[in-house]
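ARCHIVE CARD
Drawer: 12
Card no.: 0347
Subject: one protein chain, sequence and derived structure
Cross-reference: see card 0346
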Amino acid sequence: MIWRWHRASGRLFVRTTDWRRSEDRVPPAVCRPGKPDPFGGERLQLRACRRSRSAQRECGPDRSPGEAEPPWTGPARDGRWKTRGGMHPDLARIISELRAAEERARELAEESSEAGWQERPEASEWSAAECVAHLNLTSEAYLPLLEEGLNRARADGGPSPSRFRRDPFGWMLGKATGPGGRIKMKTAAAFVPGATVPREEVIREFSRLQGQVIDVIERADGLALQRVKVTSPFDPRAKYSLYSALMLIPAHQQRHLRQAERALSRVKV
């Protein structure tokens, strides 16, 4: 069997003396017996190797019609990209990071004593309890802004892109406030934790707020989050996209959970 490219027709051909034998070797989904070979002899004319996504979902390369459709990742019928769970992969990634942060906070609380959880490594530094309490205050401030942005995104309409991108200011802020950021910024008074709260209560509140943020993200699936601007709860002069705001929350949590981990490693209790 010889593979030849015919420039005039722009098609790929299989030359053979007996096309029936070649048909047994080439999947019928990609070839069919055709017209006389322009190079002489009988041949098979290959169909397009790259079929449409809808055709792949309908039958698939290794399935016959009527078989169950396996989980897949790719553009759905409405043009949006889907994960195996049916959500946009960028949003599913944020939810995964939020759940990982919740699990990490719970592990830190379980691995420490109540006294160590509340103790500051230095007088000018936060304790692990204050780090998580600060994250609770941040989530409480973000939630109404996220709800407002979600309502505006739903009213504006428009599908979500195949890939979300942060706006420039949201990207820079994410780099500055994320776990790898080295820039120290003074915390606004409204986000400085006050009186100490028992460890179990802080973690329970953290889990509750994480669930509310995840609920917002799940309801935001399919919306054009990159088009809606929200105001930062830390500085009313700062505005960035709703998607950037969703990206900032888990990044900010990772930074302060690392701070809590360092604080626990330095206390004597």
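Annotation on reverse: The chain has two domains: 2-70, 83-266. Helices lie at 19-25, 53-58, 89-111, 114-118, 128-156, 168-177, 199-220, 242-266.
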